[in-house]
Amino acid sequence: MAEKTWVRMVTAQTPTNIAVIKYWGKRDETLILPVNDSISVTLDPAHLCTITTVAVSPIFDQDRMWLNGKEISLSGGRYQNCLREIRARACEVEDKEKGIKIAKNDWEKLHVHVASYNNFPTAAGLASSAAGFACLVFALAKLMKAKEDNSELSAIARQGSGSACRSLFGGFVKWIMGKAADGSDSLAVQLVDEKHWDELVIIIAVVSSRQKETSSTTGMRDSVETSLLLRHRAKEVVPKRIKQMEEAIKNRDFGSFAQLTCADSNQFHAVCLDTCPPIFYMNDTSHRIISCVEKWNCSEGMPQVAYTFDAGPNAVLIAHNRKAATQLIQKLLFCFPPSSDADLNSYVIGDKSILKDAGIEDIKDVEALPPPPEIKDAQRCKGDVSYFICTKPGRGPDLLSDESLALLHPETGLPK
Amino acid sequence: MVTAQTPTNIAVIKYWGKRDETLILPVNDSISVTLDPAHLCTTTTVAVSPSFDQDRMWLNGKEISLSGGRYQNCLREIRARACDVQDEEKGIKIAKKDWEKLHVHVASYNNFPTAAGLASSAAGFACLVFALAKLMNAKEDNSELSAIARQGSGSACRSLFGGFVKWNMGKAEDGSDSLAVQLVDEKHWDELVIIIAVVSSRQKETSSTTGMRDSVETSLLLEHRAKEVVPKRTKQMEEAIKNRDFGSFAQLACADSNQFHAVCLDTCPPIFYMNDTSHRIISCVEKWNRSEETPQVAYTFDAGPNAVLIAHNRKAATQLLQKLLFCFPPNSDADLDSYVIGDKSILKDAGIEDMKDVEALSPPPEIKNAERSKGEVSYFICTKPGRGPVLLSDESQALLHPETGLPK
User: Fold this and answer.
1) What does each C-alpha distance from B311 to A37, B233, B249, B320 come to in angstroms?
2) Which of A107, A248, B144, B270 fits a disulfide with A253 by CB distance 3.0 to 4.6 angstroms?
């Protein structure tokens, strides 16, 4: 009688993260080891997340992966590194209910199917590879019953995509650059969890972009090779800023947090400009957003909003508290109203309660907004921003036990 | 009365940051190329007469105040160096000590718009100092005069010479050794062609004076640039200019322009002088340079969005202009004759005579999906490296009336 076949499946959800002290530059391209520490805030997966289902079964004859419904190749070095490292840590698995028994040394002969889905557009430049690789590694670790904790798992996710390591935790996270040549001490640790500073509100402006950006991998390699300022940044500036940022987060010192965040974002972009050929990730809209925020912060006794930009024109704005966030969304909607044919409901997404607090229910309310008093001759730049996402600091990776959320069919192991 | 004409200049190794705000002493050396005054210049007439009861100045036809520190410094420093003047023909005899009791009238005119961000104060202060020195028969050479012009506007010191010029930062506290010297004259590398793209700008820029002070105070990268990067680049740039090594020249000029703007971005609050159009121009040039064996064009940007493009030679300049006109055509209602000004022979060489020729241009092969961004550039100026300050002996070019000393 033929042995009953089985499929063991696990579904995980991981958040994405935004660096407030930036990672830019590797000292080792293969192991993905950085030239400096970095610190990030994890975003609420309710609004931005990756969901990944991983399945193992003796009926699978090769490793396969589907991303947002399309099959992709797993032959690249980064995927291979993650798969190899996780497999090396696989342990015995026994599921009596389903009649599954996998010995430790069975894993190297078994193949996996992976289906991954981002609830935000890949093209929007919102760090989908960070969430993606973190989810892949976390899900596989659960599938294979690896004993490693999230920091140890982060060292594996790091080999898929550097910033992925920071998505293994919620709240504020630090990626310690490490010293070891094998990268075993280059991993993420949680500084504080997502409840520590829960009055922060995060508004992301997804900026319309005409051009395809330089990839981070290429860009940071060019920077390491050609920027005469990068080394000074990595050796002299970032170490001090990391310490100050840790203090600011611990003490919920928003003034210092904002000053450091903005300065580090600007310095990262300065290093990009100091590269050969120069890299321009921010565009005129990004600059206008910065200008709005700088003017408002300057007009108040104390900064109300921090801004930071990654390798693209999108602005991540971190408001001190709900009141500041409400005022911020009003100023942003004045300066960057939607195109006339747009629907407010798709123009401000995520946590819509901020919009409600701002008293904005429809496009008429947007049109009626007064100009921010701190900006002389404030202009309304229709269509410069594609949409806004309201969110907040969020938790780390989680397993989803609800089988209806799985992306693979429980019997075929193929995408639903 | 004396009338002088001075060129403007563009730094290829940038000055950004002072170690002394009053004397205008920089934190690093800088090197510039002087632009041909035939296309961009300041003309200044200075006059002295016992009938003038106060110092007065008119700039582009409007009277302006001379009470500011910078004007006062220049006037004081030049007056201290005034000598005897004797003009037997006109029956004028001024003794050295008479100068402190006499007043001057100054009329100055830029043949390019001030708002275009084309370094009008550099040309302006250089011209003022040069003209006054001639008027007052000062014995100082142009380097010594540059130390005075420097106190009006830092980059003005470099407009006291043609060709390629270096502003030595100096060490002395009193700034007496912070002055300009000529590296080579304008004939040394006369195949270079310079095309300036005057970029449409929506906003008023941060002033250089405020901007560089904020950078000195807040940029953690500026000190490293000034101490470690610029000294090496200055040496390499001097070599490249001396040897007419365009490849090195271009690499250094572009890198230094980008690093200057990087320091501006690293400032608190951040300063953005370049805009999307500036970036698109850089992208065009970078793509072309990379597609050729050796760079054809260097770019550099000052404290504004305008691009100064230095082409290796006439052939490169002609191709450059074709690529620029493809990527940045004029608005449909524009007149080609006012869209490309200065030396129009480059346009001729490019075979472009009217708007139809502009519309018919082919896309640069090295740019995938090349777009045509109408109206992003206000106009282009074609010029070249040029000579230093000169006196204009033709009295009809004087800006003040020979009898009243008032603007014509």
Assistant:
1) 42, 20, 11, 8
2) A248
Main-chain dihedrals φ then ψ at residue A277, nearest 5 degrees: -75, 155
- Could you report the per-residue pLDDT of B69-120, keeping only the tens digit for each? 999 999 999 999 999 999 888 889 999 999 999 999 999 999 887 666 677 8
Check CB contact under 8 Å for B282 and A278.
yes
Quick check: B295 and B324 in contact, CB under 8 A? no
Is the sign of the CA dihedral B26, B29, B30, B31 positive or negative? positive
E runs forming strands in A123-263: 172-175, 188-192, 201-207
Q: How far is CA B351 from CA A315, B44, B112, B146, B354, in A?
A: 45, 37, 26, 42, 9
Instruction: Outline where DSSP puts E strands in B259-323.
Output: 297-300, 307-311
Q: Are strands B92-94 and A49-57 parallel, antiparallel or unpaired?
A: unpaired
Cα diameter, chain A: 82
Residue in B251, B270, B282 nearest the CB of A290:
B270
- Would you list the DSSP string of B144-213? HHHHHHTTT-GGGGGGGSSSEEEE-----TT-TT--EEEEE-TTTTTT-EEEEEEE--SSPPPPHHHHHH
Which of A308, A17, A9 minimizes the C-alpha distance to A157?
A17
pTM across the whole model: 0.94
Residue among B143, B178, B217 nearest B23 (CA) = B178
Residues in chain B: 408
Interface of A with B in 217-246 (CB under 8 A): 228-229, 232-233, 236-237
Over residues B99-109, the pLDDT tens digits come to 999 999 999 99
Predicted-complex ipTM score: 0.92
A288–B contact, CB cutoff 8 A: no
